[in-house]
Structure to design on (451 residues):
């Protein structure tokens, strides 16, 4: 019979230095995990952006914005993917090669694009040379019109053809490189030229330089009077009035406002990009634009896109949060985590406490309480057959009492002293009585009880 059945073994105490080492390790691991989580949360995200223009200015502007974002420690970094122009940029974006792109509103597949900002607006300038008899769209009948950036401007040419029935008027549109425009006008190869460009000093000076001008002669801006009707049908465009004196101040050229079409250059992002990420990026790039606007005056045209539900190019929800002042605060985003974390930590603390007790004791608590073990010894005392068995039982009682005292010192569910005294006193009485019975003359040892 196992004499130690139901008796708890002595607790194995870990050395103090080992306990200190374990606690220190837990503290270091917790601090390291917290630091890692903090750095992970604040880490900048790099987004690729497709950008290009025939004169190379667009990549320079975006590169300056990217440098300023890095300098301002913004949550987003930009990786430039330079292209040949809006067509290639739109293709790179729509094929999923980049996260962002600078595109023109009437070029390429924009089904996956959502607007973040409007970087600039391009205006259609339909210009005839000084002294030309062409002053309106009807005057283009049976003429050839040069188109600078013809591939990019295919859509606007098609719109003008349809709006004014220019095919019936035998108007021909011909692609012309910028450096060939002056020669083509002088040789009558073309009678007018179409530009689509921002109204900035740099681009306007290019147009002025293509035509000889003096106080009496100046190029003629041909109005697109149906611009409002075109814009209602083709939502990529807006009606725009070129201000009086745009090409020259005195005498003013044009001498009055001229109606034409306008199209926007957008910075767009994928629909799948995180709203909080884009909200932070929109805020950061707006600040960056202010920092470099003196170097790039064209950024004065920088503005928010149309946030209405029926906008031609839908605004990204993250950008809309910034423009509408609905950005989520730290508490908005993490309130649930802040509420649930103490509960999770409490559960973790319980698990760690159980593990710590296991490490200290070397084993889990016995399934049989010590008090039950003491009571079980009473039955053995009554059936003891000789003095040897009684001595063994006394030793077992001592072991149980010693173990309980250690548990009391370690505050581990120890029995109180009163309970131990009562149990020990009762067992002592039983042992005394059994010894007396065994020592009585003529006594016979009872058969050993079945367990």
């Amino acid at each position: 019979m196992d004499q130690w059945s139901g008796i708890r073994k002595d607790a194995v105490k870990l050395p103090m230095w080992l306990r200190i080492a374990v606690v220190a390790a837990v503290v270091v691991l917790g601090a390291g995990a917290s630091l890692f989580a903090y750095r992970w949360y604040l880490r900048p995200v790099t987004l690729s952006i497709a950008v290009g223009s025939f004169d190379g200015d667009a990549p320079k502007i975006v590169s300056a914005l990217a440098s300023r974002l890095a300098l301002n420690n913004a949550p987003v970094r930009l990786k430039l993917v330079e292209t040949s122009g809006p067509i290639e940029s739109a293709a790179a974006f729509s094929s999923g090669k980049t996260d962002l792109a600078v595109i023109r509103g009437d070029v390429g597949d924009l089904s996956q694009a959502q607007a973040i900002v409007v970087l600039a607006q391009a205006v259609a300038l339909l210009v005839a040379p000084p002294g030309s008899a062409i002053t309106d769209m009807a005057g283009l009948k049976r003429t050839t019109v040069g188109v600078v950036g013809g591939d990019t401007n295919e859509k606007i040419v098609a719109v003008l053809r349809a709006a004014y029935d220019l095919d019936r008027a035998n108007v021909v549109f011909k692609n012309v490189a910028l450096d060939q425009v002056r020669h083509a006008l002088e040789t009558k190869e073309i009678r007018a030229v179409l530009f689509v460009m921002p109204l900035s000093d740099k681009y306007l000076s290019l147009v002025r330089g293509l035509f000889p001008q003096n106080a009496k002669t100046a190029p003629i801006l041909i109005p697109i009077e149906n611009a409002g009707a075109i814009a209602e049908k083709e939502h990529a465009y807006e009606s725009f009035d070129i201000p009086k004196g745009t090409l020259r101040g005195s005498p003013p050229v044009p001498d009055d406002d001229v109606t034409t079409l306008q199209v926007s250059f957008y910075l767009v992002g994928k629909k799948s990009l995180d709203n909080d990420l884009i909200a932070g990026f929109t805020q950061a790039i707006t600040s960056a634009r202010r920092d470099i606007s003196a170097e790039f005056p064209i950024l004065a045209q920088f503005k928010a896109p149309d946030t209405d539900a029926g906008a031609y190019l839908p605004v990204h929800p993250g950008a809309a949060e910034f423009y509408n002042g609905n950005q989520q605060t730290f508490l908005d985003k993490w309130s649930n985590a802040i509420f649930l974390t103490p509960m999770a930590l409490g559960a973790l603390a319980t698990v760690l406490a159980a593990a710590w007790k296991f490490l200290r004791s070397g084993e889990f608590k016995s399934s049989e309480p010590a008090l039950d073990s003491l009571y079980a010894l009473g039955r053995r005392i009554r059936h003891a057959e000789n003095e040897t068995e009684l001595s063994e039982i006394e030793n077992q009682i001592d072991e149980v009492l010693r173990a309980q005292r250690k548990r009391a010192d370690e505050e581990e569910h120890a029995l109180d002293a009163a309970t131990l005294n009562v149990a020990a006193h009762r067992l002592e009485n039983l042992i005394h009585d059994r010894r007396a019975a065994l020592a009585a003359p003529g006594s016979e040892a009872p058969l050993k009880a079945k367990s």
Observations:
- The mean pLDDT is 83.
